[in-house]
Amino acid sequence: MTNSTEEEKRIRKEQKLVADWKALMRTFVRPENDATRATLVKYMEQILFGLNEFLKRHVDITKEISLKELSLRFKDTQISEQPEKKLAEVITDLINDIAPYAVNVASPYFIGHMTSAIPFFMVHLKTIVSALNQNMVKLETSKVASVLEKQVLAKIHRLIYQESEAFYQEHVQNVDTTLGSFVEGGTTANLTALWVARNKAFAPTNGFKGIEIEGHYAAYRAYGVDRSVVLVSRLGHYSLRKASGILGIGNQNIIAIDVDKNNCIDIDCLNKTIKEIKQNSRTKILAVVGIAGTTETGNIDPLLKLGEICAENNIHFHVDAAFGGPTLMSERYKYLLNGIELADSVTMDGHKQFYMPMTCGMVYFKDPTIMDAVIYHANYVIRRGSVDIGIKSLSGSREANSMILDSSLKIMGSKGYALLIDHGIELARKFAEEIKKRELFQLITPPQLNILTYRVCPVHIQNKLFSGDSNETRLINENLDRINRTVQRIQREAGNSFVSRTVLKDMNNNEIVVLRCVLMNPLTNMKIIKEILDEQEEIYKNRFENFSDNIEKDDI
Ligand SMILES: Cc1ncc(COP(=O)(O)O)c(C=O)c1O
Asked: Quick one: which atom of ligand 1 is closest to the CA of 293?
């Protein structure tokens, strides 16, 4: 592994690796002759093809090794005074000793999370971003990259809102308006959206300077309220709660609205809640959040309806499309997101279905002036009157990820992305059919996008659950939960494939453990899916062959 053995230390001593000015300078200057150039190119090749070979060859999800064993290898807490290794050695170590123990999220057998394979050209684009090392906080450290960023923000804004050509010509390079903002991920995108919504709801008025300046106590006094809330289905991402904590709203004031049988926000329930809150005039609704692709089940809330409700009640409408947003590029399935154009703000993640490398989040706003609610200035940067992107941004220093997205859109075209989106959705549907055919499994949430959940639940037990009394149902479910946790764990630890697990409510409102799959990798196909299900059947057979509904064995 990368930690030095005594032998390596002895060899290094002989090689006399020392930190001196001359050696240091060499790491900063561009290759000054053919020999150094050739060496650097060789290293780059090692990175590109060494890792690529690994990702191709190593279809196992991870090498079988316990976290404990791994952590024992990384207990060296001293920074050595003199250099320990040369660049070539470090690269070789990372490729040979670290990568095999990382998680091969590029494997087509890795279908458990929203992190998947990326097109290989992304590595090249990311390298360019690192090499240029632009800082998007200000024009002085980014120049054309800032202008390019505004262009790609307008492209995605247009995908969502479909405003007129004149609108985009007015705003694409307008230094006073902002169509959106790049951030670290979906979490910070949601935080930015709620930050803007909060500041809009408690804007300056009658001698009150606004919540951003005076804080909550003054804001609530100025507006005559005691509390502010955000409404979202109970399948909302936990980042919304985090955002409410950070923004001082209080995460208990993220009100979870029940979902219907399709895991979409229950509109009656939402209307009732809004009505009740409005009757208590001392509570302010900051936002209603619609989800376009829930994290656990991939379902999409009825955005059109939510948009209408928000407009009627003058509530900020945010859509969390971190996962499902790119579906807008699919001619076949974009209708699933009808109504997203009514949103005041929209979250999207580049590192999910735009297939960008980690990490890239974005938030878009219908009103190009709404981000004026979060303007910040400093004397040495983002000065008043400057056109720095960082003036209206949660992030400070930030890399030029927008360059990757703009390039990727050019390389793939919306049609290329649509092929990926369509493949995922259609594969998920076939997967669901396969589950229905197998006696061992029960489909829990049929896919609307490319996510589905199911569980191990033999068909005779399914029948029993259907007709059983509630006490019996609870006991059976408890056993099934144990079995599903065990099957998922054993499969993960075996390292051939990976599905994730979560807890959902079934139709009787019982919490049950389910297996969750996200079909993003274009190399995943039905043959692979059948193998993954076969493996689960095998694990079940070996561990729980004699499963009955009154099984007592605790296998965990
Ligand atoms: C719907 C939704 N919103 C927000 C997030 C948070 O995104 P990130 O992990 O990029 O911060 C996720 C992540 O899975 C998500 O599924």
From this structure: 1
Taking the centre of ligand 1 as the mean of its atom positions, its distance from the CA of residue 321, in whole angstroms, is: 9
d(CA 296, CA 171): 36
Is the bond into 77 cis (omega within 30 degrees of 0)? no
- Residue ranges of domains in the chain, CATH in brackets: 6-104 (no CATH), 186-386 (3.40.640.10), 416-544 (3.90.1150.170)
pLDDT at 549 over 60: no
Cα–Cα separations (whole angstroms), residue 51 to 57, 91, 115:
10, 10, 18
Q: What is the number of the ligand 1 atom nearest to the C-alpha of 361? A: 10
Beta carbons of 406 and 152 less than 8 angstroms apart? yes
Q: How far is the CA of 323 from the centre of ligand 1 (A)?
A: 7
* pLDDT tens column, 340-383: 999 999 999 999 999 999 999 999 999 999 999 999 998 877 77
Q: Which atom of ligand 1 is nearest to the CA of 292?
A: 1
Q: Please choose from 349, 448, 449 the residue to mutate so as to test ligand 1's pocket, defined by most ligand atoms within 8 A of CB.
A: 349
Query: Which residues does 271 contact at the CB level (< 8 Å), separation at least 6?
Result: 309
**Residue 141 has what DSSP assignment?**
G
Q: How far is the CA of 348 from the centre of ligand 1 (A)?
A: 9
Tens of pLDDT, residue by residue over 461-481, are 998 888 778 888 999 999 999
Question: Which of 500, 501, 532, 504 has the alpha carbon at shortest distance from 115?
Answer: 500
Tens digit of each residue's pLDDT (9 = 90 or more) over 293-322: 999 999 999 999 999 999 999 999 999 999
Would you list the DSSP string of 342-374?
A: G-SEEEEETTTTT-PSS--EEEEESSTTGGGGG
Instruction: Quote the ligand 1 centre to 518 CA distance (angstroms).
Output: 14
Strand order in the sheet with 451-456: 441-445, 451-456, 511-518, 500-505
Substitution candidate for ligand 1 out of 115, 183, 187 with most atoms within 8 A of CB = 187
